[in-house]
Amino acid sequence: MGGRVRRVISYWAREQDSMLGQVRPLFLTLCVIWTLLGVARADLTGTGEPYVTIGAVTAVLVPLVVGYRRGGLPRWTWVVEGVGVCVIATGSGHAITFGLLFVWVNFRALYGSLTDQIIGGSTVAGIMVAGAVFLHIPVPDALSMLVAAFLGLIVNHVLARGIRGRDRAAIRERAMAKAGAQFAASNSRSDATAVAVTAALTMDPDARATLIAIVAGGNARIIGADGELQPEVVGRVAPVDQLGDEIRAALVPGGFALVSGEAAAHLAQVFQLTPAAAVAVAPLAVHDDVFGMIVLLLTRRPPDDLEAALTTLADAAALTLDQQLSRSRLKIVVEHSPDALILASERGIIRFVNPAAERLLDRSAAELLGSDMRLLLNPEDLAATLAAPTAVAQTCRIRGREDRAWTETEAVVEYVTEHDGSRSIVFNARDVSERRRLEMELQHSRRLQSVGRLAAGVAHEINTPIQFIGDNVRFIEEAFTGFVKVLDAYEKLCPAEAAAPIEEVIEAADLEYLREETPIAIGQCLEGVTQVAHIVRAMKAFGHPGGEAKEPADLNEAIQNTIIVAANEINFVADVTTDLADLPMVPCRIGDINQTMLNLIINAAHAIESANRGRGTIHITTQVQRDHAVIEVADTGTGVSPEIADKLFDPFFTTRDVGGGTGQGLALVRTLVVDRHGGEVDFTTEPGAGTTFRVLLPLQNPTAPHRAEDIMEAAA
């Protein structure tokens, strides 16, 4: 029962959210009371009197109550209600007439325009004249009642206008307050646009529709609409120069336009809208730059000033839309940035990551948020990275999972103060592993070019003197042989007594010794010349970088040439043994393979030297396994400890002292074999005993058609 009463009270008190809505029920209640008093004092004994009285009460109260509920009273009800008031007043006596007429006229004065009040005044004057003529009301009484009614009509009409204006201002203030809260909570430009059009529509009871248009490139494009507009309105475009002079003049910071008549109809026509009696326009401007406008379509010109409220709303909407645009642009930049961006508290707790950070760390944002950023950095790089000067890039290794390899990055750390005063870390990391790989390839290419030029020059410089030295030694060999033959013939033919002086010379020259040692010396010279020529050919073959295309090459020859070139690094620490199988021609970039073998052999020599166990052994083997040519380089060096096994092929990782190694050798091997040849490289090791590196190269060149049966036949 109590709930029903509350609903009834709430229903009848619906208008009390405004000051005018609070005044109207008071006058309506008084009007009902005076009407009931009139009925109570009326003479209902005459024939048909009850029915006439009930009809008069109905004619008075029903239009008043219905008009109160609807918020407006039609003009024609003045006459109907006036007749009812006359009937009630006549039946109850003149004593009740004044009060009933007064409260009725005052209640009606709270509704309608000046035209309604003129009609009301005419109706009251007609009632007074009719009362004086037909009901014989004394003229002084009629005049006093007429003057009182006119005064009440005028006073309450003015009061209603003032209260209505105050209520309009209150409605606009509430609309602005609500819009301000919704602007602050909006997350996108579409949300902010919807808030603006809704707030504008509620600012005036005569507002029929509202829209927001963005002005750019000489055109105005509708991006939001509300009210009596079709959904397809959004997206329509109109040239700004066709909007009308008053509208264009208002599209400046702080501008405003309220047009009606032809100007309002023209604006509606340009946007293909239903014509409105009046149109209000306020520009959207930020930093003295107009980028749009709010358009409010009204059923009539507002009786009070709409400019302040609409321009305030437009300023708030413009600021919010600009902020949302900035946020949207920032979001696009952050989400599409190739660099990993991480925002963490000063203690390292991650607050935000962008998609690039998720990809780099191979973990989702849900996994990363709330975790410790410091656990993602390599412990060896942590202190230097976090202590680096602002905006100075530091090389550091990072990974998102413990079972993944470290990724080399260039990181910039910024310490910032947020709006709440807390300190945060902005960590910006860029994956440079690919760049490092390309740099190593470029260095490798340049090194090969330099070695090639050097080898070609050395070979050219050595080849010519070696050729004439070899030719001259062979000439000496032939000449000495001929000389010995002549000497032998001379000894046989010359008499003993004649040869005595010559014998003394022969004995002094130790001719027998010369006969035995000179051929040996000449043979050794020729052997040395042959070795030098062999080294020259190896240098020329090793130094030739080849082209980018894979071409069939003899791996065994490449290995032998590399051993010769690396002899200076090997001879003092190890012996090199080979077990080279009969390999088919392998499609490869021979310069890359030369560099790979050189790096593996030198790495083996360094491992043996570091073991400090005396002279070691480097054993190189080749074989065919299915569709791959396999090269193995085994050494008797230190081996690889489990702690560094997963870092062995990382760029710039080295076990040698500072300045003793670059850490690029094995990383380059992996790049040359895996990335450039599609092969494989791995190793087996026994700490303290040695390591064996295995290189697998595909026998079939994917860029050239080879039949599988031909490869298998060659491998057999």
UniProtKB/TrEMBL annotation:
The lineage of its organism: Bacteria, Bacillati, Actinomycetota, Actinomycetes, Micromonosporales. Residues 457-701 form the Histidine kinase domain. Its EC number is 2.7.13.3. GO terms for molecular function: ATP binding; protein histidine kinase activity. Pfam families: HATPase_c, PAS. It comes from the Bacteria. PROSITE patterns: HIS_KIN, PAS. This is histidine kinase. It catalyses: ATP + protein L-histidine = ADP + protein N-phospho-L-histidine. It is an enzyme of class 2 (transferase). The keyword Transmembrane helix applies. Residues 326-381 form the PAS domain. Coiled coil: none annotated. It comes from Paractinoplanes tereljensis.
